[in-house]
Each structure stands twice: as C-alpha cells, then as structure tokens.
Fold:
Amino acid sequence: MLAIENLTKSYNGKVIFKDLSFTVEDGEVLTIVGPSGIGKTTFLNILAGLTAADSGSIKLDGQELAVDGTRQGSQVGVIFQDFNLFPQYSVFENITLAPRVVNKEEPLAYEKTADELLKNLDLTAHRDNYPFELSGGQKQRVAIARALAMKPGVLAYDEPTSGLDEESTKRVTEVIKQLQKQNVTQLVVTHDLPFAESLNGVVLDFSKDVER
Structure:
C-alpha cells in the first residue's frame, strides 16, 4: 500500500498543495486529473524522489521513503511524458540497462525479465529496434517495460496518452488494466478526463480535492 500523509509543497511562497493525504491499495489504479499548472507533475516528481517536499511523508508497504530529495532506489518507477528512452540503445538495451548497471543483475536474470516484459507488452518483434524506429505507442510500452524491469512497488505515469492517436491510447489503456490484474499499483497523472474514466479506478481531482 502507498500512503501519502500531509504532503506539502510551495514555490517562492506560493503553495502548490498543502497537507495532501491519501492511500492507494495494492493493485489499485489512482488517476490524478486537473488542468496544466495545478501541481500534478510536481507531486509526481516528489513521489519519484526527484523533487523535495516541504513536509509530509510517503510510505510504501510500511517503509518510509525520503521526501527531501535524497532518496536512492527504484521503489517508484516513472514513465515520463517524453518517454526518455536512450536513442543510442535498442529496445532490449533500454530495458536491461538499469538492472544491469544499477542493480548489478546477472545476464541470465535481466535477460529473462526483459524477454518476459517484451512478450507481455507485445514488443517481442521490436526487441532489436531503436527508438526512432518506433511509434509513439510503442515507445510508451518500452518505457513501461523499462520501469517494470526494476521491479518497483509503484508505477507512475506522467500524461501517458499525450501525443498518442486513438489506437495507441486504447493500447496504453489495455496495458494499464493488464498490469492492474497482475496486482501492480499504478498512479496516472493526466488532463484527459475520458481516459481517466476509462481506467475504472479512483480519480483524484487536483483542482477540487486538493487543499491550497
């Protein structure tokens, strides 16, 4: 379970959100909606450990995660809006890089994990392709596979359907629902309300439900 308690963040005296508290159960999909500039991505960056919060706590399965910007580890996997794939590496190399370099996994372990993820996300045929050879939807799925390869406790998405066509959006929706069935806890930041509603999860509206 992911527990957010009294999380507060401000910039230059302006409060972005104050005493933000909620929980996400194992296998649950929480969708965070609201217009641009409301603080959704700031929250996501704090969750990922990329930005420091002013106060509050984040706990994952009872373990407290640092919110002061000093966190290390891969407890939260984030798929960013622009995917952040390494253009010089193939799909397989993008997925296996962090397990190999950061986690120091043996080849047999990370190769097996990567091949399973490629199969589950319908990417096996693109194993040796490079990012420039992929569609937007395919890049999104590679980014998801890369995050899952680190076995995070929570998977978070920043505007996962931005720039995608209708068919690719549908495929991403299917992937999120598929991962939910596998008990993967997921947070989805989006301004696309129809997409949020299609996930059939809990919706948190940053423009209405968050104190400032």
Remarks:
- Residues 118 and 141 are 9 Å apart (CA to CA).
